[in-house]
């Protein structure tokens, strides 16, 4: 196996970063943490685990993940979020990869959890994500929200990443609040215009997609939970986008 650099972006992730880095250290020769000026012990914990810590005010999802790549000693990059871990089958799969084709990026199946409960309904599994790539041919798109790896070719490993997404349902709601704020900011940055009808339209579309096309209505309580929370997230990010424009107009005052 060729050497790999692990890469994690963080903001106040003291609760998660230690376990994340322990996971990466199983397969990586180097780990880089790009920290968005955390106010907790994230950086200190990362250093104690042997990571190289870089500080950068948040640039958006894709740009932030790309920031640390030029600092890596290796061309192969393995990116995890701070609340993710490599499952044992992913460790085995990565160690068995020859990594002899830089044009290939590798994807993993992500198991998303709410507390101890694995949520599989309405598209929450297998939730295929590309995380291992060669920086000479591939990299994260410069999207400020929900970026993904663009590569010439993709190979599915079939192995798993554990994603400890939410501590409980209250945390789930808190994350929707945080992420919808980030998403609204990202949309405004790329020039998406406000609309009175877009929040409801996107919420309804998300609800139908999760309940019907993703089968949530046939998957019990988890299916309805995923559908409703996804619709709520969609509504709030577009409502907050409208609010950003309203606040901007208010701050400018009336035209004379």
Write the layout of secondary structure elements.
Elements: E1 4-10, H1 17-24, E2 30-35, H2 42-48, E3 52-55, H3 61-67, E4 76-81, E5 84-86, H4 88-96, E6 104-114, E7 117-119, E8 128-134, E9 139-140, E10 149-150, E11 153-166, H5 169-189, H6 198-213, H7 220-252
Parallel strand pairs: 1-2, 1-4, 2-3, 6-11
Antiparallel strand pairs: 4-8, 5-11, 6-7, 6-8, 9-10
Helix pairs in contact: 5-7, 6-7
What does this structure look like?
The chain is α/β, with parallel strands linked by helices. It contains seven helices and eleven strands. The chain has helices at residues 17-24, 42-48, 61-67, 88-96, 169-189, 198-213, 220-252; strands spanning 4-10, 30-35, 52-55, 76-81, 84-86, 104-114, 117-119, 128-134, 139-140, 149-150, 153-166. Strands 1, 2, 3, 4, 5, 6, 7, 8 and 11 form a nine-stranded mixed sheet that branches. Strands 9-10 form a two-stranded antiparallel ribbon. The longest helix has 33 residues, at 220-252. It is globular, with a radius of gyration of 19 Å.
Oligomer: single chain
- Amount of helix: 25-40%
Provide mean pLDDT, rounded: 95
- Count of beta strands: 11
Largest sheet: 9 strands, mixed
Key features?
256 residues, alpha/beta, nine-stranded mixed sheet, globular
Would you kindly provide a brief summary of this structure?
Helices cover 39% and strands 25% of the residues.
């Amino acid at each position: 196996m060729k050497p790999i650099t692990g890469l994690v972006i963080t903001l106040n992730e003291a609760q998660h970063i230690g376990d994340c880095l322990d996971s990466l250290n199983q397969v990586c020769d180097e780990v880089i943490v790009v920290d968005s000026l955390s106010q907790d012990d994230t950086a200190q914990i990362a250093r104690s685990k042997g990571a190289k810590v870089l500080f950068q005010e948040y640039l958006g999802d894709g740009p932030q993940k790309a920031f640390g790549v030029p600092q890596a000693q290796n061309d192969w990059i393995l990116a995890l979020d701070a609340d993710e871990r490599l499952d044992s089958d992913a460790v085995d799969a990565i160690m068995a990869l020859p990594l002899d084709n830089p044009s290939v990026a590798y994807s993993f199946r992500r198991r998303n959890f709410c507390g101890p409960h694995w949520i599989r309904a309405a598209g929450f599994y297998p939730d295929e994500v590309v995380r291992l790539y060669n920086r000479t041919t591939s990299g994260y798109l410069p999207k400020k929200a929900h970026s993904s790896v663009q590569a010439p070719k993709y190979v599915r490993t079939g192995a798993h990443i554990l994603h400890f997404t939410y501590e409980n349902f209250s945390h789930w709601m808190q994350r929707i609040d945080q992420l919808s704020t980030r998403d609204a900011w990202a949309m405004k940055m790329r020039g998406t215009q406000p609309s009175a009808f877009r929040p409801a339209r996107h919420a309804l579309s998300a609800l139908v997609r999760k309940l019907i096309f993703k089968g949530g209505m046939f998957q019990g309580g988890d299916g309805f939970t995923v559908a409703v929370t996804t619709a709520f997230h969609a509504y709030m990010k577009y409502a907050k986008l409208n609010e950003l424009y309203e606040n901007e107009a208010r701050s400018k005052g009336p035209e004379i």
